[in-house]
Amino acid sequence: MAIKGILFDLYGTLIDIDTDESRDDIYRGIAHYLTYHGVYRHRWEVRDRYYQIMKQQKEIRGEKYPEIDVEGIWNTFLEEEGVRADHERRKLALIFAQLYRGISRNRLQLYPDVKKVLDELRPAYRMALVSDAQPCYALPEIKVVGLDGYFDPTIISAHYGFRKPDKRLIEMALNIMKLMPTEVICVGNDMYRDIFGAKRLGIKTIFVDSNQGDKYHENTTPDYFAHRFEDVLKGLETLRV
How many CA atoms lie within 13 A of 231 on its CB side? Predict the structure, then answer.
């Protein structure tokens, strides 16, 4: 069956990002900002409670591959600290989530030739994103690097509480696109989350060998190995029929 759609991973495949969530200034900055809202916590109290709530959130989900919700984490934190007004709390939760990301981020850019390749593919294929990500990070960052408007649908794991290789994320994309597994190709940089996950549904895969992601997973081999992102074009030419 002819290939009609391409499912792309985002981070490590299209976007080259580097973050450091151990940085002191993340928690110092948030602790200082909290004081303007009547919450007085040392930076390490903020950090420890953040990770405690994250752990609890994963356990409550009861998923094999649980995904966190960073806005939910901060919402819980603020509620525990006495911020009772729901509208104010949710607004602050988004601010803290994006402050956390912004301060921790060292690099955000496209890999070479990403837009060139996508522009070449767009007239011939329907393109979707299936990403382990947070919408409050991913959606603005997609705009920052100039990828807004390329993908429909955009499936983001934090909306659902589970992450790849859970096959349900890909199934959601297929259902929206009204395509069969044999009519799409998955492109990703992680042998476990992207390639293994797609192959469980019988989908052909292209592995992009970037500077991120697991390079090996037992008994998992991609249908095409792209050494650079521009090699995705060669992979599609090889696999499309």
Answer: 15
Neighbour count for residue 113 (Cβ, 10 Å): 15
> Within this chain, do residues 66 and 164 fall inside the same structural domain, yes or no?
no
**Residue the block writes with tokens 């297929």:** 174
Q: How many domains does the chain have?
A: 2
Burial 222-239 (b: 16+ CB within 10 A, else e): bbbebeebebbbebbeee
Same domain? 33 vs 115: no
- How far is the C-alpha of 139 from the C-alpha of 71, rounded, in Å? 14
Strands 126-131, 5-8: pairing kind: parallel
Helix (H) or strand (E) holding 154: strand 154-156
- Give 164-217 pLDDT, tens digit per residue: 999 999 999 999 999 999 999 999 999 999 999 999 999 999 999 999 999 999
Phi, psi for 112 (deg, rounded to 5): -55, 140
Distance, in Å, from the CA atom of 51 to the CA atom of 56, rounded to the nearest integer, reads: 9
pLDDT (tens digit per residue) in 32-71:
999 999 999 999 999 999 999 999 999 999 999 999 999 9
CA dist., res. 170 & res. 81, Å (int):
38
Residue 1 has a pLDDT of 66
Which letter, b or e, does each residue of 170-208 get, where b requires 16 or more Cβ atoms within 10 Å of its Cβ?
A: bebbbeebebebebbbbbbbbbbbbbbbbbeeebbbbbb
Residue owning tokens 């090996």: 216
What is the domain range of residue 132? 5-18+108-239
Check whether residue 13 and residue 121 sit in a common domain: yes
pLDDT band at 111 (very low <50, low <70, confident <90, very high): very high
